[in-house]
Design a protein that fits this description.
By secondary structure, the protein is an all-beta fold. It has no helices and 9 strands. The strands form 3 sheets. The protein has a 4-stranded antiparallel β-sheet, with no helix packed on it. A 3-stranded antiparallel β-sheet has the order 1-7-6, with no helix packed on it. A two-stranded antiparallel sheet has the order 2-3.
Length: 110
């Protein structure tokens, strides 16, 4: 395993984030030129805390997939298993709430 370190940028790929600008037709690859940016406000959570969103774009060479670049907060504390909870909220709804994810943060003491 190669867990993310605190302060490190990580990329997350997901679907369902909606519109981008410039517009990409449904079922199409991202056009050449500037990366299409997600227009919705996103809230990122790691280990029950906010996490900085570096960018949210329509992924290159993938159809219908978005790429988020997120910074692991420097104060992130992992579960004893070495994992952290991760979630993305869009328009107030949790769009992605995945299983705990590997992170190189210090672990909580039992």
């Amino acid at each position: 395993a190669n867990p993310a370190a605190r302060g490190e940028n990580v990329r997350v790929y997901l679907t369902g984030l909606g519109n981008v600008t410039p517009r990409v037709p449904t079922g199409s690859f991202s056009p050449s030129g500037p990366d299409p940016v997600v227009t919705s406000n996103l809230v990122i959570g790691i280990a029950n805390n906010g996490a900085p969103l570096v960018q949210a774009i329509y992924a290159r060479n993938l159809v219908g997939v978005y790429e988020l670049t997120i910074t692991i907060p420097t104060d992130t504390v992992a579960f004893p298993s070495g994992t952290v909870a991760f979630a993305v909220a869009i328009r107030g709804l949790v769009a992605l709430g995945g299983p705990p994810t590997s992170c190189g943060a210090p672990q909580q003491k039992p």
